[in-house]
Amino acid sequence: MTVEKELLKFTKKGVYCPQGKFYLDPWHPVDYAVISHGHADHARWGMQHYLCQNDSKAILQHRLGAAIKIESLDYNEPLNINGVAVSFHPAGHVIGSAQIRLEYKGFVVVFSGDYKTQPDFITVPFESVKCHTFITESTFGLPIYHWQTEKELQAELQQWVLNNQANNRTSVLLGYSLGKAQRLMSLLEGVDTMYVHRAIHNLNEAIINSGIKLPKTTLLSNDFDKKELQNKIIIMPPGLLGSRLLKRVPNAATAICSGWMQIRGNKRWQAVDAGFTVSDHADWNGLIAAVKSSDAEQVYVTHGSQAIFSKYLNEIGIKANELKTEYGEEAMVKAENESETVIDS
Amino acid sequence: MKQFSNLISAIEITNKTNAKIEALVDYFKTAPDKDKLWLIALFTGKRPSRPVKTTLMKQWCIEITKLPEWLFLESYSTVGDLGETLALLLPEPNHQLDLSLSEWMSQLKQLKPKTEDEKKIFVLNAWSGLQQQERLIFNKLIGGSFRIGVSKKTLVNALSKLTGIDANQLMHSIIGNWDIDSISFDDLINGSHINYDNSKPYPFCLAYALEKEIKELGDPNDWIVEQKWDGIRGQIVKRNSEIYIWSRGEDLVTQQFPELVDAFSKFEDDFVIDGEILAMKDNAILLFNDLQKRLNRKNVTKKLLEDVPVGFYGYDLLEFNSEDLRDKPMAERRTILENLFVAIPFTERLQLSFIVDFKNWADLYKIRENSRALNSEGLMLKQKASSYHTGRKKGDWWKWKVDPLTIDVVMIYAQKGSGRRSSKYTDYTFAVKKDDGLVTVAKAYSGLTDKEITEISKWVNKNAIEKFGPVRTVKPELVFEIAFEGIALSNRHKSGVALRFPRIARWRKDKPASEIDTIETVKQLITAP
């Protein structure tokens, strides 16, 4: 399958640009990889060369090793690669996340990676980019998904922590170490001391060392003092649900923070005390708004509800096709990727 | 409705019964009387009939949201609950309605006889005036059912914790006849409308699974052996011309079995009998699957009474004409029970659980193997001298079940569950080999761990052949061992066999699909009765 004018080819190794001789978020080792953001299903091991947005650089180095060959660009700073103008544009997904814009002989393709259209307190907000072809994710591609505003979410989360404190309980929030963790930190800043798991702490350090400011947190050491932790806030990766570490937390009230929590069945599936709808992805209206404002003539829909979302786009008059990739699947896969980075178990 | 909505949220997020009870107690401490009564009514199935059809609600939602119907249905199949799907799809509210639970309920009651247009105006106004969670509750109130893991027993335990009143008495109170408009909360829970002395049950005596060689039980003459009937345990309480049927879960199920009430009313004496409620037709015991159709029904239709009639096999007598017999030896209780049954004209509905005739322990092995043909689960062994214990006590009563039959099958369809399981593929259809193809033999949904279900769901997502709708056809690759209690020839099933109570025994990751059973080998498991 090829995109118009053959600017992109969908190969076994990933999305390939033959003119520029590079891949976008490839899932097999290649010579040159342009990376949208630092999540493990998009930034994988083994590439000879990485190109990413400036804020992602430290994250990639932290996750893939300091020895990788990596270059980075600011948002909106084009780089000519074999005649193709490559630039990054804010995707609002996680720190350093970018849509990748390719321009060749006046033809523009935007590969959105993962994105979220609603602004939050920590990532550079999503910017719509006009293009001929738009490649969109569809993680939450059903009209049942609607996110509340960041302010509403903040009020809800803070109220939960305060209620827990009133009931003498320690608030434990579970969220992926890249993205969700920093977002939760920004939402709960100033409420009380925030302890973070080592996996999150180390990533935070890497981000801070690259010059980005993050809310103040404390490392949750393995031999933590139970008394000290009582009634405080703890953020840890979801892979630790049910772990011995979590069981040692005194009077823990646990909450999963994920877009999937929009559905009651998903909350009840997990043995937790609360589920908050916190997502780094666009909700239904966000996906549609992004597609429409791109003015694209052709849309390709990747990971998530691609069959449903592309069918709907065609019905409202936007030409769309499904595109099979090895990104995401569902958050479950990410949870697994996440657990690989968890040091303590 | 905020308070009620908060209660629902608190209940459904936890899977700990104690936390649910806590939340209910809190609600009962603070809610207005009328709301408390409605809560009890709703959670015990005493709900007013549905004033608005679900098809209309779906249609109005599609009108408002302008979504194509297929997309509505995709959403529904992902959410797994209609009221919730509607609540999620509808736009944000543009005004605010603040009514209590009882106010909503009385409005819904008045809605029933109104025209479709009037109903539409009412429902749309409510939808646009409630937040998402309240909107969900509103939709549930229309349907009147809350499947959120609060059984009558949990409710009763919460009321008991709140008031200190005996839980069984409370069960009788809330199940009994009461009208929401003419009783106060205090009168209801104090049972002013009932006479608990007439219904009071005894705790059931329970048996352990046999854990030693049967010959170690000593002299066979000291034992009474019966079939282990595969129905539901029931305690029939008949006092002062009133009849009550209690289930093992200490739930009052009298109304579910009108033919039993009818049959027991033929007796003159008062008594409390322990026995088994079974589906039975033409002097044969039906499968437990059939009996299930009779359980937890609010209304027992005439058709259902004809299709799946129930009967009762009595096996113990706990009280006779006001005398507590539980400390008398089993053999003596049994004799009185037999005399009682002999005194009434024979009816298929009420029988004694017959005593298995055997001379030595070795005889029982064969009898146990044959129990499958009687639709029984095995044998019950009871010491003749035993009293009727409260709960479980090792040594006097044993259950000795037959081992289940098993076959290896391959998954061909997967479907998402509902409620808590709506996010995962939990319901599977299995096939065995037939000629060059496959034929469906069973559907099953239990027996796997949450972790395995998650793993299988991921696999289904990757290997689904069809993408739309709730059912996924999958590549026939995953092999499972399924266990079942019995097997019979059947014309109604494409495979020609019906399995009794099939469930997943384990996931056979070690077996390729080429090694599953064939329909011929499955049929060989059928033994003539």
List unreliable stretches of 5+ residues of chain B. none
Binned strand content of chain B:
15-25%
CATH overall fold name of the largest domain in chain A? Metallo-beta-lactamase, Chain A
Oligomer: heterodimer
**Number of distinct helices of chain A:** 10
Overview of the structural elements:
The complex is a heterodimer of chains A (345) and B (529). Chain A has 345 residues and is of the alpha/beta class. In chain A, a hairpin with a 4-residue loop joins β2 and β3. Chain A has helices spanning 54-64, 150-166, 180-188, 198-209, 226-229, 244-248, 264-269, 284-293, 306-315, 331-341, and strands at 9-10, 15-17, 22-24, 32-34, 49-53, 70-73, 79-81, 84-90, 98-104, 107-111, 133-138, 170-174, 194-196, 218-219, 233-236, 252-257, 274-276, 298-304, 320-322. Mean pLDDT of chain A is 91; it is low at 329-345. Chain A folds into 2 domains: 4-144 and 280-341, Metallo-beta-lactamase, Chain A; 150-276, Rossmann fold (3-Layer(aba) Sandwich). Chain B is an alpha+beta fold. Chain B has 3 domains: 2-143, Orthogonal Bundle (DNA ligase i, domain 1); 205-401, DNA ligase/mRNA capping enzyme (D-amino Acid Aminotransferase, Chain A, domain 1); 405-523, Nucleic acid-binding proteins (OB fold (Dihydrolipoamide Acetyltransferase, E2P), Beta Barrel), CATH 2.40.50.140. Helix content of chain B is 36%, strand content 23%. Chain B has 19 helices and 21 strands. Chain B has helices spanning 2-13, 17-30, 33-43, 54-65, 69-79, 82-89, 101-111, 116-127, 132-143, 152-163, 167-175, 185-190, 258-264, 288-292, 302-307, 330-342, 361-370, 450-463, 519-523; strands spanning 205-206, 208-209, 223-229, 232-239, 242-247, 271-281, 284-285, 310-320, 323-324, 350-352, 376-383, 391-392, 397-401, 405-416, 425-434, 437-444, 471-473, 479-484, 486-489, 497-500, 503-507. In chain B, strands 4, 5, 6, 7, 8, 9 and 10 form a 7-stranded mixed beta sheet that branches. In chain B, strands 14, 15, 16, 17, 18 and 21 form a 6-stranded antiparallel beta sheet that branches. A 4-stranded mixed beta sheet of chain B has the order 2-13-11-3, with helices on one face. Chain B is globular and about 80 Å long. The model of chain B has no long low-confidence stretch (mean pLDDT 90). Classes of the chains: A alpha/beta (345), B alpha+beta (529). Chain A binds chain B through residues 142-146, 260, 262-269, 271-275, 305, 307-308, 311-312, 315, 329-330, 332-333, and chain B through 12-15, 65, 67-68, 70-71, 74-75, 78-81, 84-85, 88-89, 417-424, 450, 454, 457-458, 461-462, 467-468.
